[in-house]
Amino acid sequence: MTRFPKNFLWGGATAANQIEGAYLEDGKGWSTADTAKYLGKEARSHLSLLKPMTKEDVEAAMADQEGIYPKRHGIDFYHRYKEDIALFAEMGFKTFRLSISWPRIFPNGDDKEPNEAGLAFYDKVFDECLKYGIEPLVTISHYEFPLALALKQNGWLSRDTIAAFVRYAEVLFKRYGEKVKYWLTFNEINIIGMTGYLSGGILADGIDNLLQAQYQAAHHQFIASALVVQKCHELIPDAKIGCMLARMEAYPETCNPADVLAAVEADESNLFYTDVQIRGAYPSYMTKFFKDRDITIDMVEGDEEILKQGTVDFLSFSYYMSSIATADKTGESTGGNLLGSKKNPYLKASDWGWQIDPVGLRITMKKMYERYQVPLFIVENGLGAEDTVEADGSIHDSYRIDYLRDHIEQIGLALEEGVEIMGYTPWGCIDLVSASTSEMSKRYGFIYVDQDDLGQGTLARSKKDSFDWYKQVIATNGEDLA
């Protein structure tokens, strides 16, 4: 007997805007990700993901002929998908998490007809996966948004975006319903406040209260997600569709009740989003939160019923690190998964300052499963690091193996404790462009891609030591982690 169930979905995760490239090829329209400029390594502490954008900023990026925009070329998965999927199959992937680019299907977000060339591309990708017995796990919206809808109606700040998104999802379900049985609505929906432009298409022009805008946009996404869940159940009855959270596990700094309360409030801030998508209603604790911040959510009649009827089948999440919650706001801070916190003296950190906490993954799985009693799916977890290519071409990434081994061990322990876990897809199974800083040197993959931060290189793929290690992990269903 193994701790991992026979049908456990081992695989890896990516996003269209970070791997595909071909940003205006075959009819694809502009996305918000296409305007993400590489600002150099010195800008790592100023995450481009978080930068508010104005209409003037967007127009300048579209016209810029000198700047470097790495997400426009990604790692050329658009032309190399067969080679990459063959490598995933060699590792033994049971599933491959990828996203679909909305403007590749609807170039302007709300066109009268979908772009057939875009639809055909994903048909080929899914067929290639299924040829090897790899189940596609598809994120419908992952950190990109049709730029035309941002300019036209300020993205998710407009209720009109709901109908456009539902129509887009319906096209996907009808086209790929026989090929894709696992779906996610929005990637890391809870950080819309930090990715308002990138994932939400929200321009800062004329917005006085960004916090109000954040939660109003999130409400529109909640409604869209609920409607899409219902549509998926209607059109693909044998499919499963989940939500996706950037999990922020926060420990109280001390046993001071004020610190413990800060940790409870950190959980509420994080799990508000899954409370809505899994429980089907706004939690009571948000009433005071909104009142204290003068936030009013504009709901229309029927919204509450839509949320109630459109609850998801499972909870997927990313987990990279834990943080410290405290009432004391002084002290040294460290970055990680877009949020900073005080340093935890019991933990080591990655090259990017992300605190490495495998036990925290088990803590968060136990807490979330107890809270929701729905299956969990770890769809992002991994170590971003600068890899060195040796003279013979080998890449010895023992640090990545250590990180993943320790986290998988904790998943196994959580399974033994009765937590229901569907699968595990480490982030960036092949090196890709960083979501936050648009750099290439922050690598996560089992597969090295010969490309630097400036987009230079052969794009040749090569196996790191972690490739064969993960292959053995999958072959033994998580039992051989040596």
UniProtKB/TrEMBL annotation:
Taxonomic classification, please?
Bacteria, Bacillati, Bacillota, Bacilli, Lactobacillales
Q: Which InterPro entries match?
A: GH, GH_1_N_CS, Glyco_hydro_1, Glyco_hydro_1_AS
- Top-level division of the source organism's lineage: Bacteria
Report the active site residues. 380
Tell whether Hydrolase is among the UniProt keywords: yes
What is the similarity comment for this entry?
Belongs to the glycosyl hydrolase 1 family.
Q: Which UniProt keywords apply?
A: Glycosidase, Hydrolase
- The answer to whether the entry has keyword Hydrolase is yes
Q: Which NCBIfam families match?
A: PRK09852.1
Tell me what this protein is called: 6-phospho-beta-glucosidase
